[in-house]
Amino acid sequence: MDSATLLARITDYASRPNPYPLYAELREAGPVVQQADGSYLIGTYHEIAALLHDPRMSADPRTRGEVAHKPPFLRLDDPEHHRLRTLAMRPFGPPHSPRRVDSMRGEIDRITRELLQSFEAGRQIDIVDDFAYPLPVTVICRLLGVPREDEPLFRAWSDALVAAADVRPEDDSAEEDKAGDQARMEMGGYLVNLAEQRRGDPGDDMLSAFVNEPDPALRLTQEELAETAVLLLIAGHETTVNLITNGSLTLLRHPEQLDRLRREPELLPRAVEELLRYEPPVHMRGRVPHADIDVAGTEIPQHASVILALASGNRDPMRFDEPDRFDPARPDNQHLGFGSGIHLCYGGPLARIEAQAALGALLPHLGGASLVEDPPPYRQNAMLRGPRHLPIQL
Amino acid sequence: MLESEGGGTAEDVVEMRTVVDLTRCQGYAQCVFLAPEVFELHGEEGLLYATAVPDDQAERVRQAAAACPVQAILLGEEVSSGAR
Ligand code: HEM
Ligand code: SF4
């Protein structure tokens, strides 16, 4: 078929259960494949990795004049990106808070055990609603200092924002963009308000740390606080839910590997890395070149829209041996599941601990379990791809 | 970790050792998040780490090695017999 329609075919909802044959077609046609809408789609590992490290590639939508407001650091370039990522890291990770994520382990295990209490043999449960969604939501709420019972409120905002951020062929998304803008404003206001309540009366949460920073040079402006808090709350759960769900689905599809992990639980950290390669929660990311660039002999003009298919790079046979095989003990697994370069996922260590705890505790329940539907129903989103429900019979 | 002292105990002590290939390490600090007792970030760039891993940190170090984006952390399980 026509390789210029690949993006349209990949983002078509009908491809959600299995986009991987389209990624193979993309790599065959590649490395750089121009699309009917003028964008450039790239699905080969080495080209994607190089572009993620290339300072000429912008993540900022203002580079193409798309939005006026300053986005969160996910979509800023250095040096602005570096400044805000460093400030956001202060209450979360090294060098300022090296023990913060590690100290969540006990609580993550406790939440996991509580959720699994109702998993009795013979019952039908939904991995998404009963397990994979509530865990990361509870964890990120606890970390940021957001009341867990407000979940229905921020779920609606989060849905609208994630829909607006999805990749689609150019670009009939005016309606989604408007709803997304509205949600961003409301959610930002809600989070700033929560933070303001902690001014002068801090808890051990991150919103408290942001508003009570004594050094003016290390303070976020109110606008930056809003953008950062929205980013952390959304990124903190919308992806991790897919990793835990994709993990459960993949293990149920590979009973011999499931058995192996039950016998050798010390393989779990590597199994989670393999899941991030084999069924990653984030399939694509967009960039815009600041200047004309040459990629593997193809000229990409300044300000073009470039889409990097991370999930395709993860299946590139030029980089990975037998890429379509799920191998929890795979050596040399430098996957693109968390991206690479300056935007390498901020929350990766937390997501890893959550996924290892969740899948580790779930393993004993999966032994006699079976999928009720295969493939399961998927979420609409092509960029953040994962099942909407995963019913299993215990 | 200290090896067991005194001669003649039948049990072997398995001690985990780490080496970080600092020419590959890019300072992403993923290891510091996951095993903060073993890996430490010094300033913005430099990584410090303990080569002999205490028993209660072995699982965390295994997680850190799996997570390192450039696979710079090498683990060796050294078996040393109780009587040296
Ligand atoms: C399995 C779960 C997760 C996956 C697969 C994932 C994936 C990613 C990817 C691919 C990127 C790079 C985006 C780009 O290059 O454009 C990214 C960035 C980011 N992630 Fe995650 N993420 C996960 C969990 C988390 C969690 C739990 C948090 C927050 C606690 C988080 C916060 C962020 C932030 C703030 C960025 C922007 C980093 C920057 O621009 O410097 N993520 N994530
Ligand atoms: S995770 Fe790897 S690259 Fe990062 S600091 Fe540790 S050893 Fe270096």
UniProtKB/TrEMBL annotation, chain A:
CDD domains: CYP164-like. GO terms for molecular function: heme binding; iron ion binding; monooxygenase activity; oxidoreductase activity, acting on paired donors, with incorporation or reduction of molecular oxygen. Keywords: Heme, Iron, Metal-binding, Monooxygenase, Oxidoreductase. InterPro entries: Cyt_P450, Cyt_P450_B, Cyt_P450_sf. Belongs to the cytochrome P450 family. This is Cytochrome P450. It comes from Streptomyces alanosinicus.
